[in-house]
Amino acid sequence: MSEIKNNYVTVLWEARAKKGMEAEMKAFITGVVTGSRYDAGCIEYEAHEVEGQSGTFIIFERWESKTALEEHLTCNRMKEKAPQLLELMEGSIEEGIRLLQPFRPEK
């Protein structure tokens, strides 16, 4: 297997709504997706709810660089939204973040 050399960063973020807050968290995520898609360096930003697991959400993100991702995570909009998100979700925001490294079989 070989790693694919690239500069982009792929993120898989998973979060679970607190019991009884599933609809509110889905509405919250719906409201922040569009703004995030327009952040500098965003290639792809898609929100999903896990089928059969109401209140479990996954956001798939692709950024041009780690710098672009960091700027997104620390922008004023996200800083303002974080406390509201924490009221809706179980655990911390950071717990759900996974950075993905692509690879493929050797030819």
UniProtKB/TrEMBL annotation:
Transmembrane segments: none annotated. Residues 9-98 form the ABM domain. PROSITE patterns: ABM (PS51725). It comes from Abyssalbus ytuae. Keywords: Monooxygenase, Oxidoreductase. It comes from the Bacteria. This is Antibiotic biosynthesis monooxygenase. One of its GO terms (molecular function) is monooxygenase activity. InterPro entries: ABM_dom (IPR007138), Dimeric_a/b-barrel (IPR011008). The keyword Oxidoreductase applies. Pfam families: ABM.
